Amino acid sequence: MKSFTDGLAITLSLTIAGQTYTIPGGNVMSLELGLHPYGFSGELGFDVLLSSKQPTDTLLTPITQNDLIVVALQVEVYIKQSNAKSSSLKLSGLATSKGFSEETLEEYQQPILCRHYHLAFADPAQVLWKQHFPCDLVTDSTLQTLIAAHTSDKIKLQYNWDALSTKYPVLSLPLGASGNPASFYDFLLWLVDSQNGVFTYDLGNNQYTLSASKSKQGTPQPLNALEVANFGIEFPEIGRHQPNVLNAYSESPQTTAIENDQKASPMRRDYIARYPIASDMQARVSLETARFKLRKHEVRVEYHKFPLMITPPGQTVNFKDSLWSSSLFVQGKTYRVREWRLIAHSVKEKGSTPLPAHNVGYNSYLMEHSLLLECSDELWVDLPPYVLPVYPFFVEGKIVSEQGEDTDATYQFHQDQDTSVNYYQISIPLWGNKKVRAAYQPNLDTGQFYFPSYKNARVLVGLGFDSAYIATFLDWGSGTALPMDSQGNQLVMGKSTTSQNILKHTYVDGKPELLIQRTQDSDTELLQFSDGTIVLQTQQQEKGS
After folding, report:
1. Do 40 and 114 belong to one domain?
2. Integer Cα distance of 374 and 335 in angstroms
3. What is the reported pLDDT for 125?
């Protein structure tokens, strides 16, 4: 990359525990920044000089504590004509790591202690959400409500995406579950990627936006030909696969192809799931059709002079400066800045350690500066690498039934008004007995058995992103367990001990016995088979006896 020397005016402040410390720009010895549409990261180094005239480093104690450090930075070109139009780069982030080294400079009239500080920092969401691993559950709610519950005063977020307003019966976060390495930052990026959204960061306002599409606002800024060293055109790899959406539902199996004129048969990318509801299948086809994008060309721009006008990610630019040739490939096209990079190190004479321009706002740097531009109508969304959240994760619940008395072991199912699909209600004690829906289906039984889950039965619930299901049952029903010595098996059916049917197999003196018993209040009928004996008995117990 092209290197050049230029002067920068830098304003740097660190806010620690409510106290702001200003570092003169001349003391900033190094600065590296990578800006993207979704955020930024950077590193900087600065010096603090201690001498008889300035014996105290007020930054030393606070920077060695564990308080959050807010880094505020402004960068602009230092030498410019008085009437020249210019802009500055302003950003605010949080420190991720810090450190310093100490050096005594003996070559001056008096020994001077030079403390070299270095900080790594990034945008607030990246810093905080990468350390956020919540397990959470909301019911009959929206994605906006779920996400908003995990923001803070350091993370300002706007919503401009209708998908976030859709109400779901169940939404869950599995991020603290065992075997799940994804953070909340990973979850948000996965959500944006998988649901065809856009996640952008506004440097100037230190604010994020979740939206359905890229912003088309703003006036393109012409790039100055006198500042640009060179540029090149890059063409990303083209998708050659055939996207297909597969419905594995046995009653309506389907394969729907998504158009790709550039496919190379038989290469394909299949998306397979079960969609018993036809509208769910169509929604997935619409989603994958929108997500499939053939990328357009990009332009890599390198500078040999720090620009007067800063063009951060999201800014649109063009090559309409009068010094650009009209025959250029990029002429007549508008681009959006996708990446902004700067590497700047203070200029030092070889073999010496000069003092920085102490307490002034500028310094001279050896720099590399570049932009990566995408076409202004590019639909592909730039996101950083992320870890997939792992679904399902498991919690305990209890079956809900409003049938019968509170103590009755009844069952109940509900029917969705829109889809006519039946479902259980399951109470989740961990989250204040919120009720989740789970499919009303045989689960591990075959279709010949009809044994719905009964009231208050403890079940292990698998929570998906927007669904729940009964994974297994966790306890025996009341009165069903038998002593180990009997080596018995028992099937108990009914609401309670006074209204039930029992089918029981046990061993008595090492010989099998079979019992069938019906009970309704004081009325009992019994059929018992044992070695050489059949007992048929009906009995009605008198009230009060």
Report:
1. yes
2. 5
3. 98
Tell whether 20 and 115 lie within a shared domain: yes
Determine contact, residues 129/144, Cβ cutoff 8 Å.
Answer: no
pTM exceeds 0.70 for this model: yes
Q: Which pLDDT tens digit goes with each residue over 406-458?
A: 889 999 999 999 889 999 999 999 999 999 999 999 988 888 889 999 999 99
Is residue 381 classed as helix, strand or coil in its secondary structure? coil
Compute and round to an integer the Cα radius of gyration of the chain: 34
Instruction: Name the 3-class secondary structure at 76.
Output: strand
Q: What total number of domains does the chain contain? A: 4
CA distance 393 to 322: 60
**Degrees, nearest 5: CA angle 509-511-512:** 130
Strand runs (DSSP E) across 235-361, as ranges? 242-247, 254-257, 268-273, 298-303, 316-318, 335-346
CA atoms within 13 A on the CB side of 305: 12
Examine residue 509 and state whether it is found in any structural domain, yes or no.
Answer: yes
pLDDT of residue 358: 57
Q: C-alpha dihedral over 363, 365, 368, 371, to 10 degrees?
A: 10
Mark whether 400 and 494 lie in a shared domain: no
Residues 58 and 114 in one domain: yes
Q: Please tell me whether residues 465 and 496 are part of one structural domain.
A: no
Q: Are strands 221-222 and 511-520 parallel, antiparallel or unpaired?
A: unpaired
- Cβ contact 526:545 at 8 Å: no
H or E segment at 375?
A: strand 362-375
**Residue 212 gets which letter from DSSP?**
S
Q: Structural domain of residue 491, as residue ranges?
A: 484-540
- Element (DSSP H or E) covering residue 104: strand 89-105
